[in-house]
């Protein structure tokens, strides 16, 4: 959902670093209900060692750490990993409401990342950092970006204890996701099919698609859930920043240019504007829980 293109152009496309910031500042919080629902269902807390694949700018990790969990985040893009490090490391000037300041993990040394209880890595390690077994693996929004999701999951699952939960997240039914409709309208009106089926970010919306991925990875499905995740923005400009940061419109931009796609996106958002000038896109996200056999 949030893979920003490396392309920089002169027609208004933000560069990759700006888009990563837009994701962290505007968009990522929209998935908080999904993170909260999963963590509550699985009772994430001090006994949890979470391995987050595609952890992005780290908000899901921060929320698990605030519950007392030990977390290891895997993020291949150094820009996103740096944003996660900024969130997870103590820093001067954090406000009193910042959860980074409220959370105080154990003092064990861990150079370059949060001390002891947090690690940020570019790839899935060959062994569990610190020899603390993983007992929860999450892939909240990166499945469509993985060329071979089953292989990635199987590779990560070998680090987990038997019976550990593996959570796969994704979009819910298209008719319940206003964002999906807006993005497709903007792309289609701009004269471009959103993406090829193999890389369509919305391709995993089938009722049992997440479970099928888990089965092909050698995991055992163990339930699922749906969570309302409204995308609410204070104004149209914020909505454009947030949606642009997801990478959902990259194919259309490459085909027709940013100016035209932006125009169509603003038009598609018009019917979702509220009386106060804000924009609200109601969505349902789905997650599936599987177990390591």
Task: Name a few traits of the molecule.
globular, 11 helices, seven-stranded mixed sheet, two-stranded antiparallel ribbon, alpha/beta, 293 residues, Rossmann fold
Structure description:
The chain has a domain at 16-174 and 200-230 and 285-291: Rossmann fold (3-Layer(aba) Sandwich), CATH 3.40.50.150. The chain contains 11 helices and 9 strands. It has helices at 16-27, 32-41, 59-66, 78-88, 99-102, 149-157, 178-189, 209-216, 236-245, 250-256, 258-269, and strands at 49-53, 70-74, 118-121, 134-139, 160-171, 220-228, 231-233, 279-281, 284-291. The strands form 2 sheets. The chain has a 7-stranded mixed β-sheet with strand order 3-2-1-4-5-9-6, sandwiched between helices. Strands 7-8 form a two-stranded antiparallel ribbon. The longest helix is centred in the N-terminal third of the chain and has 12 residues, at 16-27. The protein is globular and about 50 Å long.
Quick description:
By secondary structure, the chain is an alpha/beta fold.
CATH topology of the domain at 16-174 and 200-230 and 285-291: Rossmann fold
> Termini separation (Å)?
29 Å
pLDDT < 50 stretches: 4-11, 91-115
CATH homologous superfamily identity of the domain at 16-174 and 200-230 and 285-291: Vaccinia Virus protein VP39
Order of helices and strands: HHEHEHHEEHEHHEEHHHEE
Helical/strand content category = alpha/beta
Q: Please tell me how large the radius of gyration is.
A: 19 Å
Q: How would you sum up the major sheet?
A: 7 strands, mixed
CATH class of the domain at 16-174 and 200-230 and 285-291: Alpha Beta
Shape: globular
> Helix tally?
11
**Helix share of residues?**
25-40%
InterPro entries: SAM-dependent_MTases_sf
Keywords: Methyltransferase, Transferase
Region (Disordered): 86-117
Biased composition (Basic and acidic residues): 99-113
């Amino acid at each position: 959902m949030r893979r920003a293109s490396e392309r920089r152009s002169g027609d208004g496309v933000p560069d990759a670093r700006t888009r990563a910031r837009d994701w962290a500042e505007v968009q990522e919080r929209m998935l908080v209900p999904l993170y909260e629902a999963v963590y509550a269902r699985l009772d994430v807390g001090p006994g949890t060692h979470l391995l987050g694949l595609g952890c992005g700018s780290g908000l899901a990790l921060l929320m698990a750490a605030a519950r007392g969990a030990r977390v290891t985040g895997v993020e291949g893009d150094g820009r996103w990993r740096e944003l996660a490090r900024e969130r997870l490391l103590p820093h001067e000037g954090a406000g009193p409401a910042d959860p980074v300041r409220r959370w105080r993990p154990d003092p064990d040394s861990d150079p370059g990342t949060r001390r002891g209880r947090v690690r940020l890595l570019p790839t899935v390690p060959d062994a569990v950092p610190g020899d603390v077994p993983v007992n929860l693996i999450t892939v909240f929004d990166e499945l469509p970006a993985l060329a071979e999701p089953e292989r990635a999951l199987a590779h990560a699952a070998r680090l987990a204890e038997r019976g550990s939960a593996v959570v796969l997240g994704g979009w819910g039914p298209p008719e319940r996701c206003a964002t999906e409709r807006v993005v497709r309208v903007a792309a289609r009106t701009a004269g471009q099919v959103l993406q090829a089926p193999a890389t369509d970010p919305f391709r995993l919306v089938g009722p049992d698609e997440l479970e099928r991925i888990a089965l092909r990875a050698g995991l055992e499905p163990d339930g699922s859930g749906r969570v309302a995740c409204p995308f609410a923005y204070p104004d149209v400009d914020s909505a454009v920043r947030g949606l642009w940061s997801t990478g959902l419109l990259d194919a259309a931009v490459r085909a027709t240019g940013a100016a035209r796609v932006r125009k169509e996106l603003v038009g598609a958002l018009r019917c979702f504007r509220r009386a106060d000038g804000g924009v609200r896109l109601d969505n349902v996200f789905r997650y599936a829980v599987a177990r390591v056999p």
